[in-house]
Design brief:
The complex is a heterodimer of chains A (342) and B (312).
Chain A (H helix, E strand, L loop, with lengths): L11 H6 L9 E5 H13 L6 E9 L2 E9 L8 H21 L6 E7 L8 H13 L4 E5 L1 H4 L6 E6 L1 H8 L5 H6 L8 E4 L1 E4 L2 H10 L7 H6 L5 H55 L24 H34 L3
Parallel strand pairs in A: 1-3, 1-8, 4-5
Antiparallel strand pairs in A: 2-3, 2-4, 5-6, 6-7
Helix pairs in contact in A: 10-11
Chain B lengths: L7 E2 L8 E4 L1 H12 L9 E8 L5 E9 L1 E4 L2 E4 L1 H14 L4 E7 L7 H10 L6 E5 L10 E11 L2 E14 L2 H6 L1 H5 L2 E2 L5 H28 L6 H13 L5 H20 L1 E4 L11 E4 L7 H7 L5 H9 L2
Parallel strand pairs in B: 2-4, 2-10, 7-8
Antiparallel strand pairs in B: 1-9, 3-4, 3-7, 5-6, 8-9, 9-10, 12-13
Helix pairs in contact in B: 7-10, 8-9
Classes of the chains: A alpha/beta (342), B alpha+beta (312).
Chain lengths: 342, 312
């Protein structure tokens, strides 16, 4: 019974090449287990900064992180040895975890930070390295110092697509950035984080919750001492300002040189033209008006804007931290005032 | 006949051992139980941690070890266990093997064999059982150590007896139980929301104390001397500063903090403008003297002290 034309059969190759629609990443879903492990690892190694690998699944617009493992910290050893050691460790760990049915899929990495100062060129480089192999990867940043104040300072970051393209093409000059309308806010994108727990774990935790009406979290939040945190933040902020003003000076220098060079070029061109006019008058061959070998025409390299962008990002981070903390402290101070009524 | 040969020797030591369990281990165990193979009924694995000189065992980390069981035979993948242990040592060499765990609700005879194996790794291994099937409708987490029953020279059996378990849920508390109890948390609470929740709880507790004191005064509740003493101590820990001094202190701190909130102006324009265009106005205000910083450090965290007392 032929009912009209059967649907056209696609060869396997054609099907494989069909464009799979890539949904933008909207949410990162972390398991409670991963959050606990990250916190444990970062806290144990304080004040050293540590990193680790994230494993999970990439589904639609949600990136699920189901497990993680820490990387061993590097002692000051030979670079090559460290790299092969690190790669071996990673392979061994993933192989072992696969045997116990843990998701064997790398989805990113996590790192601890000190007071939010993580926007560096190394971060960008690591992102690009990961991006070569994995379609979507995130970096989870955990701040153990801020978490000591009762807030879970966990955030998920990824590089924006436009920025990645620009960086790969190594063109971070002022004009290109203006073209793409790329401001310093467009480098990193923060993705909202959800925490999920399996039913077993949530039932265990519900049963185990102690009856005390207040937890360590509450104690941390109610501490009245505001100064150390503020001071540290301000210290870092001032350092960043210094770096920013150095970058500024670099640009000033560059522009000054550029204008000086242009003036020199004009002067040379004038001289050439008058020379040529004289030569033409006396019937000789005019000299070319361009001379690429002349140092006057050398193209000056424009300093990269990347560092200034990164520094600006850091400054903005510190400011928002200070802002949040100040809001909290204000409420706590008024609370204290209420206690001390008489 | 020598007395040694007919007396069953049951050592009653080792009950001084206390085991402290960190929440990461529980999460690890649950996760490996959920991910076990279909044919397996239970999961076993190694426990890592530290043993303090007074015998307290702290269990900080764990990993699952593949094994297979048939009838009364059990095979444990020892290579896997060794490899994982080495990998973990590279991250934190202070965590040593302290025992093993099993997710069954009861002990089986093959457990002694596994326990012997772990006995070769550490002097007195502990066995942690987590009942993941909730057979008794409540959480059943136990820690055992084993002692040998000897009759004279011969070893008869190994007896597992329970030791005291101390759940150190401080890390879980730091994250907040709300985040860990639900199966899905949509949004992590930010600082102000968290502070709001904490202050609500504080208010609740203060209300309770007021009610208690009122009841005692009216004679409805028997006064408890220890509670009364705690209350008196807490009240006394509030520093006695005269109102003027306190007002000055308060105003100074508020000024310092509010300057950060309101006078902060940062205008960072886009760097694409060819002229150097960065205008930064960051007003910290005039006089933040050294004295305001140091004196406010001396205010004890009153609320925290109060709250601590209420939790006993």
């Amino acid at each position: 019974m032929a009912d009209g034309n059967p649907p056209p059969l696609r060869s396997f190759a054609q099907a494989a090449q069909a464009e799979v629609e890539v949904q933008p990443l909207r949410v990162v879903q972390i398991e409670g287990l991963v959050a606990l492990k990250i916190i444990k690892h970062c806290k144990e190694c304080m004040p050293a900064l540590v990193t680790g690998q994230l494993l999970g699944l990439d589904i639609g617009s949600i990136l699920e992180v189901t497990n993680c493992f820490p990387f061993p910290s590097r002692g000051g050893e030979d670079e090559d040895e460290l790299d092969t050691d690190g790669a071996n460790y990673q392979l061994e760990m993933m192989r072992c975890l696969r045997e116990v049915n843990v998701d064997n899929n790398t989805v990113g990495w996590y790192q601890s930070t000190y007071m939010g100062s993580f926007q560096t060129v190394e971060l960008i480089e690591t992102f690009l390295n990961y991006q070569e192999n994995i379609k979507r990867c995130v970096c989870i940043i955990y701040d153990p110092v801020r978490s000591g104040q009762g807030v879970l300072a966990l955030k998920a970051l990824k590089l924006s697509e436009d920025f990645m393209e620009l960086y790969r093409s190594q063109s971070l000059s002022g004009e290109k950035l203006r073209e793409k309308n790329m401001a310093w806010t467009h480098i990193f994108e923060e993705i909202p984080v959800k925490i999920s727990n399996s039913a077993l774990v949530s039932s265990l935790m519900t049963e185990l919750e102690p009856e005390a009406p207040a937890t360590q979290c509450d104690f941390d939040r109610l501490v009245l001492s505001t100064n150390p945190f503020m001071e540290k933040n301000l210290e870092f902020l001032i350092e960043c300002m210094d770096d920013l003003s150095m970058e500024q000076q670099k640009f000033q220098y560059y522009y000054r040189n550029l204008s000086r060079q242009q003036a020199q070029q004009q002067a040379w061109l004038q001289k050439r033209r008058t020379e040529n006019a004289a030569r033409r008058a006396s019937g000789e061959e005019p000299l070319p008006e361009e001379e690429p070998n002349n140092p006057v025409f050398k193209i000056l390299p424009e300093p990269s804007r990347l560092d200034s962008y990164l520094i600006t990002n850091q400054i903005s981070n510190y400011c928002s931290q200070v802002n949040g903390f100040a809001g909290q402290s204000l409420s706590k101070l008024y609370l204290m005032d209420a206690f001390h009524e008489d | 006949m020598a007395m040694g040969r007919t007396v069953l020797h049951m050592p009653s030591g080792h009950t001084g051992v206390v085991a402290k369990l960190h929440p990461t281990v529980l999460f690890n165990i649950s996760d490996s139980y959920i991910r076990r193979n279909d044919q397996q009924e239970r999961v076993i694995g190694t426990l890592l941690g530290s043993i303090s000189p007074d015998g307290t065992v702290e269990i900080r980390n764990s990993y699952a070890v593949p094994h297979s069981e048939q009838a009364d035979q059990v095979a444990v993948d020892i290579d896997y266990h060794r490899t994982m242990f080495e990998l973990h040592q590279r991250v934190n060499h202070k965590e040593i093997i302290v025992g093993w765990y099993s997710t069954g609700s009861s002990l089986s005879p093959s457990d002694t064999l596994i326990h012997d194996f772990y006995g070769r790794e550490v002097a007195n291994p502990v066995l942690l059982t987590v009942d993941t099937a909730f057979a008794e409708e409540k959480v059943n987490i136990k820690v055992f150590v084993s002692t040998l029953l000897t009759l004279g020279e011969r070893q008869l059996a190994a007896q597992f007896h329970e030791v005291q378990l101390d759940l150190r849920l401080i890390e879980a508390e730091r994250i907040g139980f709300d985040v860990l109890k639900k199966t899905m948390v949509e949004k992590l609470p930010n600082d102000l929301e968290g502070l709001e929740a904490t202050i609500e709880r504080l208010q609740d507790m203060i209300d309770r104390v007021f009610r208690y004191v009122d009841d005692v005064v009216e004679g409805q509740v028997q006064p408890d001397n220890s509670v009364g003493r705690f209350l008196a101590d807490t009240m006394a820990s509030v520093p006695r500063i005269s109102s003027d001094a306190f007002d000055k202190l308060f105003n100074d701190s508020v000024q310092v903090v509010s300057r950060f909130c309101t006078r902060r102006k940062i205008r960072i324009q886009n760097f694409s403008h060819p002229l150097i265009c960065l205008k930064l106005k960051f007003g910290i205000g005039g006089s933040i003297g050294k004295e305001t910083f140091t004196t406010s450090l001396f205010i004890p965290s009153l609320a925290a002290v109060f709250v601590r007392f209420l939790c006993g």
